[in-house]
Write a structure and sequence with these properties.
Elements (H helix, E strand, L loop, with lengths): L1 H10 L2 H35 L10 E4 L2 E2 L5 E2 L2 E3 L1 H36 L8 H16 L4
Antiparallel strand pairs: 1-4, 2-3
Helix pairs in contact: 2-3
């Protein structure tokens, strides 16, 4: 029973729940960014470079052919366009995460700055009493 209880404690710990939520939101965020890149950013870039769709960019290493038995053998290609697409996706996601972390850090700094109490104000009587004490010390009197 100890192993089951330990697993239950591990599985329902706050950090695990936070991690699960982060993974789910991250997946949805990835889909949003992929749509942003594929549907909004890449079409104008494709037009700028002559109507090229980056997903179609490839180098054919071996052409497709039909073998003697009549079976079609697919071409072997190096799909560098997909790689470019994923680089653009990654860059946008990384920048978005950076901006979110930067925003959170700024909010934390502001919150910490607001928490620090202002320096205590000094009473004029206390200052005068301290000066009198210091003068008495200098004269050899008792404080």
């Amino acid at each position: 029973m100890g192993l089951i209880k330990e697993f239950k404690d591990f599985a329902v710990r706050g950090n695990m729940v936070d991690l699960a939520v982060a993974v789910i939101i991250g997946g949805a965020f990835g889909n949003i960014v992929s749509s942003l890149v594929n549907d909004i950013i890449m079409p104008p870039i494709g037009l700028l470079v002559g109507g090229v769709d980056f997903k179609d960019l490839m180098v054919v290493l071996k052409e497709a052919y039909v073998d003697p038995s009549g079976q079609e053998i697919n071409a072997v290609t190096l799909n560098y366009g997909n790689f470019i697409q994923f680089l653009v996706d990654f860059t946008i996601i990384a920048f978005a995460v950076f901006m979110i972390v930067k925003l959170i850090n700024n909010l934390k700094r502001k919150e910490e700055a607001a928490k620090t109490p202002p320096p205590p104000t000094v009473n004029k009587q206390e200052v005068l009493l301290e000066e009198i004490r210091d003068l008495l010390k200098q004269q050899g009197g008792t404080p």
